[in-house]
Design brief:
Blueprint (H helix, E strand, L loop, with lengths): L13 H9 L4 E5 L9 E4 H15 L8 E5 L6 H11 L3 E4 L6 H11 L3 E4 L1 H11 L4 E3 H6 L17 E7 L7 E6 H15 L6 E4 L7 H10 L4 E4 L2 H4 L5 H7 L4 E2 L3 H7 L4 H4 L5 E4 L6 H7 L4 E6 L9 E5 L9 E2 L3 E6 L12 E7 L5 E2 L3 H7 E4 L3 E12 L5 E6 L3 E4 L2 E4 H9 L4 E11 L2 E10 L8 H9 L10 E4 L37 H13 L20 H12 L9 H7 L2 H6 L1 H11 L15 H35 L4 H34 L6 E4 L3 H13 L4 H4 L3 H9 L3 E2 L4 E2 L13 E3 L4 E2 L4 E3 L1 E4 L2 E4 L2 E3 L4 E2 L4 E3 L2 E3 L4 E2 L4 E2 L4 E2 L3 E4 L4 E5 L15 H34 L3 H9 L5 H28 L6 E4 L3 H20 L3 H10 L2 E2 L8 E2 L6 E3 L4 E2 L3 E3 ...
Parallel strand pairs: 1-10, 3-4, 3-5, 5-6, 9-10, 11-12, 12-13, 25-26, 28-30, 29-31, 30-35, 31-36, 32-37, 35-38, 36-39, 37-40, 38-41, 39-42, 45-47, 46-49, 47-52, 48-53, 49-54, 53-55, 55-56, 59-61, 60-62, 61-65, 62-66, 65-67, 66-68, 66-69, 67-70, 68-71
Antiparallel strand pairs: 1-2, 7-8, 8-18, 13-14, 14-15, 16-17, 17-20, 19-20, 20-21, 22-23, 24-25, 27-34, 33-34, 42-43, 44-51, 50-51, 56-57, 58-64, 63-64, 71-72
Helix pairs in contact: 1-2, 2-3, 17-18, 22-24, 22-35, 23-24, 23-27, 27-29, 27-30, 29-30, 29-31, 30-31, 33-36, 34-35, 35-36
Pfam families: AMP-binding (PF00501), AMP-binding_C (PF13193), PP-binding (PF00550)
Organism: Novosphingobium fuchskuhlense
GO molecular function, one term: phosphopantetheine binding
Length: 1329
């Protein structure tokens, strides 16, 4: 009995005839309007059938069976689809050419296809004139309207085995290879689609693929075979990014067949509701990521299709459901799938092998490539005729297949997938070359592409450099081998195939003179530069001044930094930066930049503020006495207050409370206590400031002078104010006013803006100013051993974006914007209404206008908004403590422990197992329980929608609370395996195998992170853009395998491609980077070649079970850390209880309480010291893989320091006591060295050396995680050098004696700064004057 599919047409165009007969007035093709195409173009099935018949009658006399007509038509009118069908009706076959193809590619296709004609339009005919030769160029539109020739008839004998179309794909021959598909091959697919998807006239199928690719075939016939409407999505629509969702919605799309990357670029967080009409999502073309599958499969049918062109588009497909396995499915009807080993024997179920396809969809073969056809299309004794896909798969018991990548000669070069065979073929096609072989080879830890060639008989020695040049004219730069060598013969296997493993190693030491002509230097500067190039890149024979540092000479990011260091030893080239090398690339180009660089350096120095007269004299002995006395007073007073709270207040509050009331009311009483403490701390600071210092004034004074000491005492008192609690509210501004600052109305001061460090009387901020996350105002700075205090005036409506800095003695005009990570240098005036960017900042254009609100939330009075914010934070705190309280009640109930027993144990600790179980158990479990609870609380708060909201609305309070919760959770989880799971639970979309560290200002539901992405510390991830009373919220999407360096900024709304690197202190913009690229700098530039660390994936991505358990152990150990402060508190109680009977009241107050208070602090600091030396010892320059045990221990020590020592050491900033502790931890600090406020926690202290009298305010990076490998090396700051605020010294750098590095800079790896010079920038540039 015949099945339904057996009754279907066996010719592709016959499907249209059936659909047109059933739905003649239905819309067949719909081309929506676009920017340069205002009118919508539609065509009914009747019109399509009539016009294709007419055009076919014109073509039939020209065609014989198997002859090919080429099509060069854009997807901006129905004519492309009409032409395809007309060629089939006329008995021929077609090949479609994308108008974006280069002329050489078009010529190759036309020649291989032996095209009898080209159907095109007027523009296409003009372009093809010099390319097509004698091939007739036919105007498809004109012919479709013209009367057909007299007597013309359509052929009636078109057979199913006749050629239908040819698709040209990239091939190992170096030329495109044509895949020949017969009517019966593709008709099998179309028939199966009709039965599988049951589409009809109500459906609107999106056609988004280029007609030159086979995926377009299935899109077209999903519609035209079923009577549905084919809706054309041209290239302009496909590039809409986030706006593609609105386009699909407005076009009422019901069927969409995109690659997963297009779905990711849409940034759509809720496609189920955003696209209610979309019923079938048919994805393919690349691997389907888990996050995309889970999000887009909701509310509709999602099908994952797989198929090479050689199997008529799709040969496997499987349904995908949220949370289910991501399979490539089972064979479509009429096809068979086999999993075979190297001997083409079937493997057992679950075992991996090569996927081979058989059945009706297997194509005829490759045009004019009988050898390749015989290799790939095999007559198997059991399976019949099969196609070897070259893909690695396994089959599950249910029949579903799973994809595991390629097994042929593909390699990855700088993020790009490349087929070595194509490089070999193009090399072999060059004059004088008989054969070629290519491979990847390690070169100093960097995988480099190399090739060997065999010269034709009788050819004189080949010019190998010229071969590279010729090859570079036909392939992208990343496909050009770094070196080409010469062999007599290529090594082969017994079977005669190329044996790449037997190729000899390529020498990278420039042991031979170059064979190309060397262009010599023309000036002394070119000579100096050429000598430095040759020295760094080991080219003793010299180089040409026109050689490209990266492509011709094999340089990378590390050698570029070493080159800069070498050039700085010559005063004539001290201006060179790493970015200059990337921009110029050649000696000649670099020399040409000298004059421009000198002008830029002079310009960078022109904003030096008026010099301040240095006042006072350093008095280190006096400083020690004053600082120790103040700290002792703080310790004593803190101890007295704590004693009164513990022995008087708590007993009075809790004496009559039962256990339930005690547990549940503790959070409320804590919040109330903080509220009462706030005015006391502010009042105390005001009193100290006015008594000790009075008003701040512009001044420059030595550190440890009397002025410095008065300032230090003032800011020590200011530390007592709970600044984080006030952030984001008008009460923060009110406190600043009380301390002397002039703050306007509607000013937003974000988290991380540290204004507690003095200088308040010199600060003037206008109305509606925004200071973004971690923005910096340099009212008080350290410079060359001095404290420098200066005035800052910020006009109304100014915005400082994330981590932007304005230094002392600056004025920023009204309405201006300082871009993220930018630095306005001391003494600069920024005019009104301008956008400034860079390090140092420069005008780059006018500031944008404030965005228009899209949400109509009610605007609250700032005071009311501040109260509401504090109330929301207090409520969140109390609700967050609820699970811990309930857990405590549960344990107390189970173990029969009451509040009296707990208080008794605190005062007199004993080994009571029940009490210990409650106290230790609750302390340990409270953190993970609270973390899970906080993520669920964020979910319960509802989703934040993209748009522009009012800064003073209730909607913004929700955003504020959510970002705070993410930051607080990150304090425990960042860098752990659990962190990505918490973020998912909170609403973020995180891919598999991601490594995420510290992130700032994050709204989880607006974040999508692709699989295998790696974050370094301190990432500013899509935070709300706050400006002039508005808040812009937009989703961000990071592609797969993204690397973000420390302090990278990802602005809201960015959709970044796969396989990219964003360097340290760099702002990422999708418009500036493509897949596989790297960007770094301020402003950023492309890194065409970077140093890559290669290591076994079992140590970086795919760990063994024992490594997974090891890492999880150290990460879970974090949750035990709260026990340390608990035991320290118990120690304090015990010392006071035991000391009271042995002392008089005066001795108890003046000796016992202060010493008892000091003891727990010392114990915590010594615990950190012990952890450091016992777990990691003295750190040495080395490399450690992410999943190594050492890296896990190293990370745990960092967390212990953060939890136990950071807050204590912050109180010691600016004192010799902090230096003493850091020395104990391994940091080398010279005499009279001045350390800034970042030294309360130092990673890798053993790797840092600070010379005598140096002044350092920096974020040290003595380590980096490159390619998931921890690299550690030394950082040396020599005597008298100054590292200004916000600067990041990377490992291996050396700052010479007396050198000065300006704020916000990055000192590159292995970069050496010359003594006495001034530098600034990302990367550094010499600043003259």
């Amino acid at each position: 009995m015949l099945s339904a599919s057996d009754l279907r047409p066996r010719l592709l165009h016959a499907f249209l005839g059936e659909a047109a007969a059933r739905h003649p007035e239905g819309t067949a093709i719909d081309v929506p309007p676009a920017r340069n195409r205002p009118e919508r173009q539609t065509m009914t099935y009747a019109e399509l059938a009539r016009l294709t018949d007419r055009l076919a009658l014109h073509l039939a006399p020209r065609l014989e069976p198997e002859r090919i007509v080429a099509l060069l038509l854009p997807r901006t009118s129905p004519m492309l689809y009409l032409a395809q069908i007309a060629v089939l009706k006329a008995g021929g076959a077609y090949t479609a050419i994308d108008p974006s193809f280069p002329d050489d590619r078009i010529a190759e296709v036309l020649e291989d296809a032996d095209a009898v004609a080209v159907l095109t339009d007027v523009a296409g005919a003009q372009r093809l004139g010099p390319v097509a030769g004698a091939i007739p160029l036919l105007d498809a539109a004109a012919l479709s309207q013209a009367e057909p020739p007299a007597g013309a008839a359509l052929p009636a004998d078109v057979r199913p085995e006749q050629l239908a179309y040819v698709i040209y794909t990239s091939g190992t021959t170096g030329k495109p290879k044509g895949v020949m598909v017969e009517h019966r091959n593709v008709a099998n697919l179309v028939a199966s689609d009709l039965a599988e998807f049951a589409l009809g006239p109500a459906d609107r199928v999106i056609q988004g693929s280029s007609a030159a690719y086979d995926s377009s075939i299935e899109e077209i016939w999903l519609a035209l075979a079923s009577g549905a409407t084919l809706v054309v999505m041209d290239d302009e629509a496909a590039r809409l990014g986030p706006d593609i969702v609105e386009w699909l919605r407005s076009e009422r799309a019901t069927v969409f067949c995109p690659p997963p990357t297009l779905l990711r670029s849409s940034g759509c967080r809720d496609p189920e509701n955003a696209l209610p009409d979309l019923k079938l999502l048919y994805v393919g073309g690349e691997a389907l990521p888990r996050d995309i599958a889970d999000r887009w499969a909701k509310g509709r049918r999602m099908v994952n299709g797989y198929g090479p062109t050689e199997c008529a588009v799709t040969c496997l497909r499987g349904d995908i459901v949220p949370g289910g396995p991501i399979t490539i499915g089972r064979p479509v009807p009429g096809m068979e799938a086999y999993v075979l080993d190297d001997a083409l024997q079937q493997v057992t179920e679950g075992e991996q092998g090569e996927l081979c396809m058989g059945g009706a969809g297997v194509a005829r073969g490759y045009r004019h490539r009988e050898d390749l056809t015989a290799e790939k299309f095999v007559d198997h004794p059991i399976c019949g005729r099969i196609y070897r896909t070259g893909d690695l798969v396994h089959r599950e018991p249910d029949g579903n297949l799973f994809y595991h990548g390629r097994i042929d000669a593909q390699v990855k070069i700088r993020g790009y997938r490349v087929e070595l065979g194509e490089i070999e073929a193009r090399l072999a096609a060059l004059p004088g070359v008989r054969g070629a072989a290519a491979r990847l080879q390690d070169a100093g830890g960097v995988p480099e592409l190399v090739a060997y060639v065999v010269a034709e008989d009788g050819v004189s020695p080949l010019d190998l450099d010229d071969l590279r040049t010729q090859l570079g004219s036909t392939v992208p730069s990343y496909m050009v081998p770094r070196r080409i060598g010469l062999l007599d013969e290529l090594p082969t296997t017994v079977g005669g195939k190329l044996n790449r493993a037997a190729l000899p190693p390529m020498a990278f030491t420039a042991d031979a003179a170059p064979t190309r002509a060397i262009v010599p230097p023309a000036t002394p500067l070119e000579s100096a530069l050429a000598a430095a190039f040759a020295d760094i890149l080991s080219r003793p024979a010299g180089i040409s001044v026109e050689d490209d540092f990266f492509e011709d000479l094999g340089g990378d990011s590390l050698s570029a930094a070493l080159l800069v260091t070498l050039l700085r030893e010559d005063g004539a080239a001290d201006w060179v930066t790493v970015s200059d090398i990337y921009a110029a690339r050649t000696v000649r180009g670099l020399a040409a930049m000298a004059e421009e660089a000198g002008a830029a350096a002079d310009s960078a120095a022109q904003h030096v503020p008026d010099a301040l007269v240095r006042e006072g004299k350093a008095r280190p002995l006096l400083a020690n006495v004053v600082q120790i006395a103040w700290l002792a007073g703080e310790l004593a007073f803190g101890g007295w207050v704590s004693w009164w709270v513990a022995w008087e207040l708590f007993p009075a509050l809790f004496d009559k409370l039962n256990l339930v009331a005690f547990v549940l009311l503790t959070p409320l009483i804590t919040v109330a206590g903080v509220v009462l403490y706030l005015p006391v701390s502010v009042g105390f600071t005001m009193l100290v400031k006015w008594a000790v210092l009075g008003r701040y004034r512009p001044v420059r004074a030595p550190v440890w002078s009397t002025y410095y000491l008065r300032h230090w005492v003032t800011i020590q008192s200011a530390r007592l104010i709970p600044w984080p609690m006030l952030s984001g509210t008008v009460f923060h501004n009110a406190v600043l006013r009380l301390l002397g600052a002039k703050i306007g109305r509607g000013v937003h001061i974000h988290r991380g803006v540290h204004l507690h460090r003095g200088g308040w009387d010199l600060l003037e901020i206008g109305d509606n100013v925004t200071l973004g996350q971690d923005a910096h105002l340099g009212l008080v700075e350290l410079d060359r051993g001095d404290i420098v205090v200066g005035r800052i005036v910020i006009g109304s409506d100014v915005t400082l974006q994330s981590r932007a800095s304005v230094e002392h003695d600056c004025r920023v005009g009204a309405g201006s914007v300082i871009a993220p990570l930018s630095v306005v240098n001391p003494g600069t005036t920024v005019p009104s209404g301008e956008l400034w960017d860079g390090v140092p900042a420069r005008r780059v254009g006018p500031a944008a206008q404030a965005p228009v609100l899209t949400a109509g939330g009610r605007r609250l009075h700032p005071v009311v908004h501040g109260l509401a914010t504090l109330a929301a934070e207090g409520t969140a705190t109390m609700l967050g403590a609820l699970p811990t309280g309930l857990l405590a009640l549960l344990l107390c109930g189970l173990l029969g422990v009451g509040s009296n027993e707990i208080w008794t144990w605190m005062y007199e600790p004993k080994l009571d197992p029940q009490v210990l179980a409650v106290v230790i158990g609750v302390t340990t479990i409270s953190v993970p329980v609270s973390l899970v609870w906080s993520a669920l609380m964020l979910r319960a708060m509802g989703r934040v929608q993209p748009g522009v909201i009012d800064r003073w609305s209730l909607d913004y309070i929700r955003v504020w609370i959510k970002s705070a919760a993410v930051f607080n959770a990150g304090q425990w989880l960042s860098g752990t395996l659990l962190w990505k799971h918490w973020l998912r639970l909170a609403g973020a979309n995180i891919g598999e195998k991601c490594e995420i560290s510290t992130i700032f200002d994050v709204t989880p539901e607006l974040v999508t992170i692709g699989a295998e992405t790696f974050f370094a510390d301190g990432i500013y991830l899509g935070g709300p853009e706050i400006s002039r009373g508005t808040v812009t919220l937009a989703p961000i999407v990071l592609g797969r395998n993204t690397f973000l360096g420390n302090h990278a900024v990802i602005p809201a709304g960015e959709v970044l491609p796969d396989d990219i690197l964003i360097g340290i202190s760099t702002v990422a913009h999708a418009s500036e980077i493509s897949a596989g690229q790297s960007r770094f700098g301020r402003p950023s530039f492309d890194l065409p070649r970077r140093q890559v660390v290669e290591m076994d994936r079992s140590l970086t991505h795919d760990p063994s079970a024992i490594r997974y358990v090891n890492r999880m152990f150290w990460e879970l150990l974090r949750f035990v850390l709260p026990v340390g402060p608990l035991l320290a508190t118990v120690l304090w109680y015990k010392l006071l209880v035991e000391g009271a009977p042995e002392s008089t009241d005066l001795e108890f107050a003046l000796i016992v309480i202060p010493l008892a208070t000091l003891a727990p602090l010392v114990v915590l600091l010594l615990t950190v010291t012990a952890a450091k030396w016992l777990l990691v010892g003295r750190v040495k320059p080395a490399q450690h893989a992410l999943w190594s045990c050492w890296a896990s221990r190293w990370d745990f020590v960092f967390v212990v320091w953060a939890r136990y020592a950071n807050a204590i050491l912050q109180q010691l900033e600016g004192t010799f006591l902090l230096n003493a502790y850091l020395r104990l931890m391994g940091l080398k600090i010279g005499r009279m060295a001045v350390l800034g406020p970042q030294f309360s926690q130092v990673v890798d202290p053993d790797m840092i050396e600070i010379g005598d009298g140096a002044t350092v305010t920096a974020f040290f990076q003595a380590h980096t995680f490159e390619d998931r490998v921890l690299k550690v090396d030394r950082v040396r700051i020599m005597a008298g050098a100054t590292i200004s605020a916000g600067t990041v010294p990377l490992y291996g750098c050396v700052v010479g004696e007396g050198a000065h590095v300006g704020p916000g800079s990055v000192i590159m790896k292995q970069e050496h700064l010359l003594p006495g010079l001034s530098y600034q920038g990302v990367p550094l540039r010499v600043v003259r004057g």
